[in-house]
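Morning. Coffee machine broken again, so started the prediction first thing and wrote up yesterday's gels while waiting. Chain of 198 residues, entered below exactly as on the submission form.
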Amino acid sequence: MAKLYFNYSTMNAGKSTVLLQAAHNYVENGMSPYLLTADLDHRAGRGQIASRIGIAQAADTFAPGDDLFARIAGRQAEGRLDCVFVDEAQFLQPAQVWQLARVVDDLRLPVLAYGLRVDFRGELFPGSATLLALADEMREVRTICHCGRKATMVIRQGADGQPLHEGDQIQVGGNETYVSLCRRHWRAAMGDCAPDAP
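Came back before lunch.
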Protein backbone atom coordinates (compact mmCIF):
# COMPACT_ATOMS: atom_id res chain seq x y z
CA MET A 1 0.00 0.00 0.00
CA ALA A 2 1.44 3.37 -1.05
CA LYS A 3 2.02 5.99 1.64
CA LEU A 4 3.27 9.55 2.00
CA TYR A 5 6.31 9.54 4.27
CA PHE A 6 7.92 12.61 5.84
CA ASN A 7 11.50 12.09 7.03
CA TYR A 8 12.41 15.25 8.93
CA SER A 9 15.25 16.60 10.99
CA THR A 10 17.50 19.56 11.47
CA MET A 11 20.58 20.44 9.39
CA ASN A 12 23.40 17.93 8.96
CA ALA A 13 21.48 14.89 10.19
CA GLY A 14 22.07 12.87 7.03
CA LYS A 15 18.66 13.22 5.34
CA SER A 16 20.16 13.22 1.84
CA THR A 17 22.37 10.24 2.69
CA VAL A 18 19.32 8.26 3.87
CA LEU A 19 17.38 9.28 0.74
CA LEU A 20 20.20 8.25 -1.61
CA GLN A 21 20.63 4.91 0.17
CA ALA A 22 16.90 4.16 -0.03
CA ALA A 23 16.80 5.11 -3.74
CA HIS A 24 19.83 2.88 -4.36
CA ASN A 25 18.01 -0.02 -2.68
CA TYR A 26 15.13 0.39 -5.15
CA VAL A 27 17.53 0.36 -8.13
CA GLU A 28 19.44 -2.61 -6.73
CA ASN A 29 16.17 -4.54 -6.62
CA GLY A 30 15.35 -3.76 -10.26
CA MET A 31 12.89 -0.98 -9.50
CA SER A 32 12.68 2.56 -10.86
CA PRO A 33 12.66 5.49 -8.41
CA TYR A 34 12.05 9.11 -9.43
CA LEU A 35 14.13 11.73 -7.59
CA LEU A 36 13.17 15.39 -7.13
CA THR A 37 14.97 18.23 -5.36
CA ALA A 38 14.39 21.96 -4.92
CA ASP A 39 15.54 24.11 -7.83
CA LEU A 40 16.75 26.84 -5.50
CA ASP A 41 19.53 24.76 -3.88
CA HIS A 42 22.49 24.57 -6.28
CA ARG A 43 25.26 23.92 -3.75
CA ALA A 44 26.06 20.52 -5.31
CA GLY A 45 25.10 21.66 -8.82
CA ARG A 46 21.72 22.09 -10.42
CA GLY A 47 19.59 18.97 -10.24
CA GLN A 48 21.85 17.11 -7.81
CA ILE A 49 21.03 15.48 -4.50
CA ALA A 50 24.32 15.33 -2.64
CA SER A 51 25.37 14.15 0.78
CA ARG A 52 28.10 15.60 2.95
CA ILE A 53 29.80 12.19 2.90
CA GLY A 54 30.42 12.50 -0.84
CA ILE A 55 27.66 10.57 -2.60
CA ALA A 56 25.35 12.21 -5.13
CA GLN A 57 22.64 11.42 -7.65
CA ALA A 58 21.04 13.40 -10.47
CA ALA A 59 17.45 14.49 -9.88
CA ASP A 60 14.75 16.53 -11.53
CA THR A 61 14.02 19.85 -9.83
CA PHE A 62 10.84 21.47 -8.59
CA ALA A 63 10.08 25.16 -8.20
CA PRO A 64 7.16 27.09 -6.72
CA GLY A 65 4.10 26.71 -8.91
CA ASP A 66 5.14 23.40 -10.47
CA ASP A 67 2.34 20.82 -10.63
CA LEU A 68 4.04 17.79 -9.12
CA PHE A 69 1.06 15.51 -9.65
CA ALA A 70 1.08 16.23 -13.40
CA ARG A 71 4.87 15.86 -13.55
CA ILE A 72 4.87 12.50 -11.75
CA ALA A 73 1.85 11.20 -13.69
CA GLY A 74 3.68 12.12 -16.91
CA ARG A 75 6.81 10.35 -15.74
CA GLN A 76 4.74 7.27 -14.82
CA ALA A 77 3.17 7.27 -18.31
CA GLU A 78 6.66 7.09 -19.86
CA GLY A 79 7.53 3.78 -18.23
CA ARG A 80 7.97 1.90 -15.00
CA LEU A 81 7.90 4.02 -11.85
CA ASP A 82 7.96 2.45 -8.40
CA CYS A 83 8.60 5.27 -5.93
CA VAL A 84 9.10 9.04 -5.66
CA PHE A 85 11.80 10.64 -3.50
CA VAL A 86 11.71 14.36 -2.68
CA ASP A 87 14.74 16.09 -1.16
CA GLU A 88 14.58 19.58 0.43
CA ALA A 89 10.86 19.02 1.04
CA GLN A 90 10.66 22.07 3.32
CA PHE A 91 10.68 24.15 0.11
CA LEU A 92 7.48 22.57 -1.18
CA GLN A 93 4.44 24.78 -1.29
CA PRO A 94 1.41 23.48 0.64
CA ALA A 95 -0.42 22.88 -2.66
CA GLN A 96 2.51 20.76 -3.85
CA VAL A 97 2.30 18.59 -0.72
CA TRP A 98 -1.38 18.00 -1.54
CA GLN A 99 -0.28 17.05 -5.07
CA LEU A 100 2.12 14.49 -3.59
CA ALA A 101 -0.72 13.12 -1.46
CA ARG A 102 -2.72 12.69 -4.69
CA VAL A 103 0.24 10.81 -6.19
CA VAL A 104 -0.02 8.36 -3.30
CA ASP A 105 -3.81 8.08 -3.38
CA ASP A 106 -4.54 8.21 -7.11
CA LEU A 107 -1.36 6.87 -8.74
CA ARG A 108 -0.68 4.45 -5.87
CA LEU A 109 2.99 5.40 -5.68
CA PRO A 110 4.87 5.72 -2.40
CA VAL A 111 6.31 9.21 -1.87
CA LEU A 112 9.23 9.68 0.52
CA ALA A 113 9.86 13.34 1.37
CA TYR A 114 12.98 14.46 3.26
CA GLY A 115 13.36 17.92 4.74
CA LEU A 116 13.78 20.31 7.62
CA ARG A 117 10.99 20.66 10.12
CA VAL A 118 11.72 24.16 11.46
CA ASP A 119 13.70 27.20 10.38
CA PHE A 120 16.33 29.15 12.32
CA ARG A 121 13.59 31.07 14.16
CA GLY A 122 11.98 27.85 15.41
CA GLU A 123 9.03 28.19 13.02
CA LEU A 124 7.67 25.49 10.72
CA PHE A 125 8.30 25.80 7.00
CA PRO A 126 4.93 25.87 5.18
CA GLY A 127 5.82 22.72 3.23
CA SER A 128 6.88 20.92 6.38
CA ALA A 129 3.75 22.00 8.24
CA THR A 130 1.60 20.54 5.47
CA LEU A 131 3.65 17.34 5.42
CA LEU A 132 3.21 17.01 9.19
CA ALA A 133 -0.54 17.34 8.63
CA LEU A 134 -0.86 14.94 5.67
CA ALA A 135 1.89 12.33 5.97
CA ASP A 136 0.84 8.75 6.58
CA GLU A 137 4.10 8.11 8.41
CA MET A 138 6.73 10.40 9.89
CA ARG A 139 10.29 9.52 10.78
CA GLU A 140 12.86 11.63 12.54
CA VAL A 141 16.42 11.51 11.19
CA ARG A 142 18.48 12.33 14.26
CA THR A 143 21.64 14.28 14.85
CA ILE A 144 23.23 15.70 17.99
CA CYS A 145 23.99 19.06 19.52
CA HIS A 146 27.55 19.86 20.64
CA CYS A 147 26.43 18.90 24.18
CA GLY A 148 25.47 15.37 23.07
CA ARG A 149 21.70 15.83 23.32
CA LYS A 150 19.43 15.33 20.33
CA ALA A 151 19.46 18.39 18.05
CA THR A 152 15.97 19.56 17.15
CA MET A 153 16.66 23.20 16.26
CA VAL A 154 19.03 25.17 14.05
CA ILE A 155 20.56 28.62 14.26
CA ARG A 156 21.65 30.76 11.34
CA GLN A 157 24.89 32.58 11.97
CA GLY A 158 26.17 35.75 10.40
CA ALA A 159 29.62 36.32 8.90
CA ASP A 160 30.86 37.11 12.44
CA GLY A 161 29.68 33.69 13.71
CA GLN A 162 26.96 35.23 15.87
CA PRO A 163 23.39 33.86 15.76
CA LEU A 164 20.94 35.84 13.64
CA HIS A 165 17.50 36.56 15.06
CA GLU A 166 15.86 37.94 11.93
CA GLY A 167 15.93 37.40 8.20
CA ASP A 168 14.19 35.63 5.36
CA GLN A 169 12.97 32.16 6.17
CA ILE A 170 14.80 30.69 3.19
CA GLN A 171 18.53 31.10 2.79
CA VAL A 172 20.44 28.21 1.26
CA GLY A 173 23.59 27.31 3.16
CA GLY A 174 25.56 24.60 4.88
CA ASN A 175 27.91 24.33 7.85
CA GLU A 176 29.19 27.85 7.25
CA THR A 177 25.69 29.23 7.86
CA TYR A 178 23.77 26.82 10.08
CA VAL A 179 24.43 24.99 13.35
CA SER A 180 22.15 22.29 14.74
CA LEU A 181 21.43 22.52 18.47
CA CYS A 182 19.24 21.01 21.16
CA ARG A 183 16.33 23.24 22.19
CA ARG A 184 18.13 24.44 25.35
CA HIS A 185 21.25 25.58 23.48
CA TRP A 186 19.10 27.08 20.70
CA ARG A 187 17.23 29.10 23.36
CA ALA A 188 20.55 30.22 24.84
CA ALA A 189 21.83 31.26 21.39
CA MET A 190 18.62 33.22 20.82
CA GLY A 191 19.00 34.97 24.20
CA ASP A 192 16.10 33.17 25.88
CA CYS A 193 18.06 31.48 28.68
CA ALA A 194 21.56 31.02 30.03
CA PRO A 195 23.53 28.19 28.36
CA ASP A 196 24.11 26.53 31.76
CA ALA A 197 20.46 26.71 32.82
CA PRO A 198 19.12 23.34 34.03
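The longest strand covers residues 4-9. Going to sketch it on the whiteboard this afternoon.
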